[in-house]
Amino acid sequence: MSQSIFGVVSLIFWLLIAPLMIGITFNFILPKEKKRLGITFLLGFLIYVAGFEIIAIPCMTKIMYNAFSYCVKYYVILAWVLMIPGIIKTALAVFKDKDLSKLFYLKKADAKNNRTSTASSITGSDELEIADPDVAKKHKIETYIYWGIFFALLAFQMVMAILMASFDGDDAYYVVESLLAQQADVMNTILPYTGISTSLDIRHALAVITMWIAFIAKVSGIHATIMSHTVIPLIVIPLVYLVYVEIGKSLFRKKQEFVPVFMIIVSFLMMFGNVSIHTPATFFLMRTWQGKAIVCNLVFPLIFWIFLEMMEKKEEKAESTGVEQTTEKVAAKAGIRQKISTASYGWIMLIFVNMLSGMCTAMGVIFATGLIGLLTLILLFIKKDWKVLIGAFICVIPNFVYLALYLSIWSS
Amino acid sequence: MYGIFMECWVDLKLYGGNGVLLALLIISSIYLITSEKDLKKKILFGILPLVILVGFLVPFTKIAYVAAFDDGKDTYYRIMWLIPTYVTIGYAATRALSRVKRDTVRRCLLPVMLVIIAVTGSFVYTNQYMQRAENAYHIPQNVIDIVDEIAPAEGEPRVRAAFPSELVHFVRQYNTNILMPFGREMVVTQWDYYNAVYEVMEKPEVIDAKALVEATRQTKCTYIVMPDNRTIKGSLTDEGLVIRANIEGYTIYEDPQVEAFNG
């Protein structure tokens, strides 16, 4: 019993609190209005897993015996180093200042919403005209109902991830890799199918997502197969939908009441998307814990979201100047750091997204590079600013390092 | 070149299943191209999906992909993952809804859209590869029971056991202290490997007890897990094996002559 409680507490800590604290440490890179809880968590999660890649690959390639134990030890140290500033910031905000807005961007809901909806009825030709407060209130209730339906669908998918078991042959490789790390303290040096020792299988080894799952299994004392099949979907499914929510918010910038409708449609497409074994929806709900599933359902939508945000910037800047007229002091305080973050947070996040893609599968690195190249051309066309090429080049550096490492190990 | 185009077409058909998802994608993209005023949205979710879709069908793309990836022929469909399919369809549908001025019509249209998605799609939880989980591991309970019976105690050397094909995927997902003479690599027929134990245990209709024991002893298998419905010429017990247990239709034979593998 006490072991189960320890396991659950550890899971909550290492899967929710650790990424959130890391996100709070680093959310200074986000523009003010992006410092929301969800994006902070997303940023923290990306840095958290990127840190694992940096620790795991050297441990795997350089340490002969008990490689996984060393990996766990070093990663715990790194995770704490990344978390501590976030913990201090949180403690100060909660206990000293008693003001959570020091950590996150909190929308002053009512006043602002009313202002926005009134403004939107005047400005946007593309918007619902809500001048009457009664109508606005009715729409607000409707929006809450739609959000309620979406969260019910999300909860359903999470419950089904626990209750239903899917068969996939690849688990005999990936899940066993995680379990071998947990039970035999090795990192990809035992053949999962039969158990004989083998040299490092470079084709799969650099995709250390299996080792990260093993890490969570190890620190929580939960069997790696339970971790893969039952626990990981509980974090990946909401995370994927969080990205879709952010995409929805970018798409319906002035019509936020349609975001839950968009989410209901997307979640239906996911649940009924099993038209073949190859679709992202099939991977999402049947092989959630596998690197390929994470690449096509988390990494690629993340890339689209970040580019959507970067393409929006000019407009947003103009908008935010209007809003910030009332809070000039705050804007002045944010100063140059805010300007830098507004210009570059997308590229910085893409660095970590690329690291996540490499952590999931080698194929992800090549696909992500190609997709970023394609979207950069579109960004260049829209913004007509050659500096985007610099950002694009910097953000794919992890991919080139990954490929260089891949080729050097492969040829040695 | 036409042959490669047809391969791409077949890949697309295999990816799209009944084709409705692809049809919805194309309709959504065209709708966004014709009606979206915001240039970036028009390009990202209108033009780009169609460009990638056309690019997928161009033979040169497949030639380059197959050259770049070892398993390129089998994984070419993954190019389709670059299309933001769900965002495109979701955005187009929601945008269309948001243009409807009358609340009642809009409220009725959403369920209609969802019904179309549900009826034309395929519910993932009724898939033939999905079933109710028997335990938190999400592997068959009989595998757990069998492995618990033969697993070495803590500190004892690992053991090797020959399992029938239908169980090999799961054994080491539960306990990596069980080694196997063959695993999933033998079950995937297109990989076409050779394994001496597999040759005598899984390939023939009738198992030759003598040949099987000879092969398992060479590979130091302490246990053989045999489905009760398999026909055996001769008897494994006559070859010196003892029956350890019978669990849910599988008999576990132990070979006293094979010392535990000390790997």
Structure explained in plain terms:
The complex is a heterodimer of chains A (412) and B (263). The relative contact order of chain A is 0.10. The longest helix of chain A has 34 residues, at 291-324. The N and C termini of chain A lie far apart (49 Å). Chain A has 412 residues and is an all-alpha fold. Chain A has helices at 2-26, 37-62, 67-96, 109-123, 133-163, 171-184, 202-205, 209-220, 224-251, 259-271, 280-286, 291-324, 328-360, 362-383, 387-395, 397-411, and one strand at residues 164-166. Chain A has a domain at 319-412. Chain B has helices spanning 2-16, 20-35, 39-57, 59-68, 72-75, 85-98, 103-120, 141-150, 168-174, 184-187, 196-201, 209-218, and strands spanning 130-132, 159-162, 178-179, 206-208, 223-227, 231-233, 242-247, 250-254. The radius of gyration of chain B is 27 Å and the shape is elongated. A 5-stranded mixed beta sheet of chain B has the order 3-2-5-8-7, covered by helices on one side. A two-stranded parallel sheet of chain B has the order 4-6. The model of chain B has no long low-confidence stretch (mean pLDDT 93). With 263 residues, chain B is an alpha/beta fold. Chains A and B meet through helix 5, strand 1, helix 6, helix 9 and helix 10 of A and helix 1, helix 3, helix 6, helix 7 and strand 1 of B.
In short:
The complex is a heterodimer of chains A (412) and B (263). Chain A is mostly helical and 412 residues long.
Tell me the quaternary state: heterodimer
Overall pLDDT score of chain B = 93
The share of residues in helices of chain B is 40-55%
Distance between the termini of chain B: 52 Å
- With helices defined by DSSP (H or I, 4 residues minimum), what is the helix count of chain B? 12
Which term fits the overall shape of chain B? elongated
